[in-house]
Amino acid sequence: MRAITRPAKDKPPRLDSSHPVPQPSPTAYLVSTKATALTRGELTWPEPLEPEIPIPGYDLAGYIQQLPSESPTPSRFKTNDEIYALTAFHRQGNAREVSLALEEEMALKPRNMSFEEAATVPLSALSAWQALFVHGKLEANFTDRETLERSTMGKRRVLVTAASGGVGIWGVQLAHQAGAQVVGTSGPTNVDFVKSLGADMVLDYTKTDIADWVNEDRESRCFDIVLDCVGGETLVSAWKCARKGGTVISVAEPPVPKKPATGVEEGVEGVWFIVSPNGAQLARITQLIEEGRCKGCVDNVYKLEQWEEAFDRVEGGHARGKVVLQL
């Protein structure tokens, strides 16, 4: 089969046209890959270098070819089911024509999404879900919006930086659907797009310093949760935007080393985590997508043989949503 492989950690990927097809496993489903999405920086992550021959792309969208030999009866999934998943980083990824996924990693693909659209969801949406609802302690209560709008007592405020990026898109949507007041940051060309996702306010980072904006009226502008998807100086500013007892969650780099010496409220906690595959959480995201309350975003779709162009687009840092490889 065709696969994008990495012969060594210090060498660039390459297209292998005769890579061996993975063997069936007692616990893993054999999946015909239709699409995978790429993530900025993934070629530098340590975990994906563990396999003897690493393969990038940890989002998976496809259909089941074969059940595990030790799958429970009845299995949650059957042959030809259309599924999507985030697969574990320590195994080979999914930029290959046939892949493997565990039952606990998978969910049925949303019926109103193409394979390419579905491939944009798992890693990004699960990162946002776990940031907000696991580490940020926001309640994953998706009551109808009218009820949430009427409930003004105790509404939590969430800031999402790089709100038009892969994780940011989902941070805005999930926080909005859970009833939070959401502010996002983006470049000038994406302000309207981020508003369309449910942000109550979008700040153009080329014109507005977020920490200065908060300091103009800290009482009303501080945030309970800051989800930073940028790192660097943006993460330094993020600490100054959290209210007393708030949480700064970063998916870009560990936040504690970026905590400034001054300007941080008492009791603000910094959280760094690596997203985990979770089919149950992904199934809840599927429901929101099928109800029309959330959506993925495809920046560009490339054929497998165009993988170099795809990685160039990802690493350029200006993708709206996710870059997809189509198989």
From TrEMBL:
GO terms for molecular function: oxidoreductase activity. Residues 7-17 have a biased composition (Basic and acidic residues). Residues 1-27 are annotated as: Disordered. Pfam families: ADH_zinc_N_2. Coiled coil: none annotated. InterPro entries: Chloroplast_QOR, ER, GroES-like_sf, NAD(P)-bd_dom_sf. Residues 13-325 form the Enoyl reductase (ER) domain. This is NAD(P)-binding protein. It comes from Westerdykella ornata.
